[in-house]
Amino acid sequence: MIANLVAIAAEEEQNPLVPAWPELVVGALAFAIVFFVFYKKLLPRINEVLEERREKIEGGMEQAEAAKTEAQSVLEQYKAQLAEARHAASSLRQEAQEQGAALIAEMRAEGQRQRDEIVAAGHAQIEADRKAAAQTLRQDVGRLAVELAGRIVGESLEDHARQSRTVDRFLDELETKAEANDAADAGAAR
Fold first, then answer.
1. Where are the domains of the chain?
2. Which of 23, 130, 160, 187 is disulfide-compatible with 19, CB 3.0–4.6 A?
3. What is the pLDDT of residues 106-118, one digit of tens each?
């Protein structure tokens, strides 16, 4: 093909689209030199840069994979700690409920004990008041009875010892009758 072009160029007048034969040889030689320089100098450098870039990308991917694995491990640890914390919170809540129930029971027992003490003290006070009222009533009834008996008999019964014996005997008889009536009522109720 080159020979045909050279023959055509020699026969005809110089065609501007077809270069001269010496220009083709010089152009091919220049192309070969530039290609050789690129092949020996530039291409190894380009390959080296591409290899470094590939290694960086692979290293980054390995680091990302290691970071992902580590993150997964940390996540599992946090989940385990969270589960442990929830269990501990549940245990504390249960313990607090048990302590609360025990405290309530203790407070109820203390309240019951105090109520019993107050009731016992009230009963003792009532019994003391009853005895005092009975004593006062006995004295008043005795005085009134002696006074009334003195008016009926027409003379004064001023002897205090005799007066006390008479009143005591009268009141004892009344109490005996009242107890007998209470016992009879209780026997009839059965």
1. 1-111, 122-190
2. 23
3. 999 999 999 999 9
